[in-house]
Amino acid sequence: MQPTARQPEDPVIAIDWGTSSLRAALMSPDGAVIGKIATPDGIMFAGERSFEAIFRELFGPWLAQHPRAQVLASGMIGSRQGWVEAPYVACPAGFRDLADALTLIDVPCMTRIGLIPGLSIEHAGVPDVIRGEETQVFGALTSLGVDEGIFVLPGTHSKWVTVEGGRIIGFRTFLTGEMFDVLRRYSILGRLMTEAEPAAKDGPSAAFDLGYDLSRQGHLLHHLFSVRSRGLFGSTAPADLPDYMSGLLIGEEIREATALIDRGGRPSVYLLGRGDLAGLYRRALAHHGIEATVLDDGMTFAGLFALARMRNSRTEV
Questions:
Q1: Could you report the per-residue pLDDT of 63-79, keeping only the tens digit for each?
Q2: Model-level pTM?
Q3: In this structure, how many other beta carbons lie within 10 angstroms of the beta carbon of residue 52?
Q4: What is the pLDDT of residues 168-179, one digit of tens each?
Q5: Pairing outcome for strands 70-74 and 12-17
Q6: Domain 12-145+302-312 in CATH: superfamily?
Q7: Beta strands in 95-202 (DSSP E)
Q8: Dihedral of CA 23/299/150/114: which sign?
Q9: Fold of 174-295
Q10: CA-to-CA distance for 104 and 84, rounded, in angstroms?
Q11: CA distances from 138 to 88, 172, 180, 226, 303 (A)
C-alpha cells in the first residue's frame, strides 16, 4: 500500500507486543488513552495463527473507526522470533535515532505498522541488548521532563539503563527473574518450597530481608545453597524459602549494578515495573542509601505516542 500522510490530529495506536502478552492503547491526538486492549497473544503464544491474523482480529475495529491512525509497536514483535526483525540501534542512542530507524510493515488494505528497534551495546567485547525497555525509558523521560538518570526495569531479565543528555548511553542486563524461576522449578533448591508466591504484595517478609542482607557479602553461589540448608534445618519455613531466595538474587543484582553507577554525580534513580516487584527493589535500594522513584506502567504508551509525533513531524509512516 502507499504511505498515508499522517497529521498531528490523527490518533495513535500504541502496541506493547511482548513474549507472553500484548497490551495496546488507542490514544487521542492529545495523548489521552481512549481505548485499551490486553490479551495473552504474546509472540510465543501465537500458535497456528500468523501475527498478521492476530493484528487484524484485534485492531480491525479500531482501524475501521480511525483509518488514519498511526500504528507503532514495541517489544518482542520486532525480534528475530517476531513478525519482522527490527535491527538493533547501537548505543549511545536518542529518541530521534529510534524514530529514524523504524522497520515498516504493510498490512494490505488496512494500515502500515512501525516496529521500534531495540538497542545494543558491548561490554568488554560481549554484546548486550534491550528490546521494548528503551521505549519505556524514553516514555519516562517525556513524561517526567528529565534528560538524565538511572532507569531500573526489574523482571525476568532486569535492565539498568543510564541516560545522559536525553540519550541512552549504556545499559546492563541481569538474569535475576529467570534465574529465580529456573532454580525454583528445576533445581534441588525448590524441593522444600511451598507454592506460595515470593515476596507477597502486602510487603516483603523477614526472610526476604535476611536473604538480601546476606547477599551484600557477595559469594552468591555459596549462599544459594543456604536456601536448601536453611530448609533442612528448619531455620526458614518452607513458605518463606522463595522470599529468602528472592532476597539473595535481587540483592546480588543490586550489589553488582550499584557498583557500576557513578555515585559521584548522584543520578536520580527511577523504577519501571509492576508495583510489587518495584516495591522490593525500592526497599533494597534504600539499604544502599539510594532513593528511587517508582513510575507507573503507562510509560511504554507515552514513549510510543512521543515517537509517533516525532516521526510524522519529519516524514510519513
A1: 999 999 999 999 999 99
A2: 0.88
A3: 14
A4: 999 999 999 999
A5: parallel
A6: 2-keto-3-deoxy-galactonokinase, substrate binding domain (3.30.420.300)
A7: 103-107, 111-115, 119-123, 126-130, 149-153, 158-164, 167-174
A8: positive
A9: Nucleotidyltransferase; domain 5 (3.30.420)
A10: 9
A11: 16, 17, 28, 40, 5
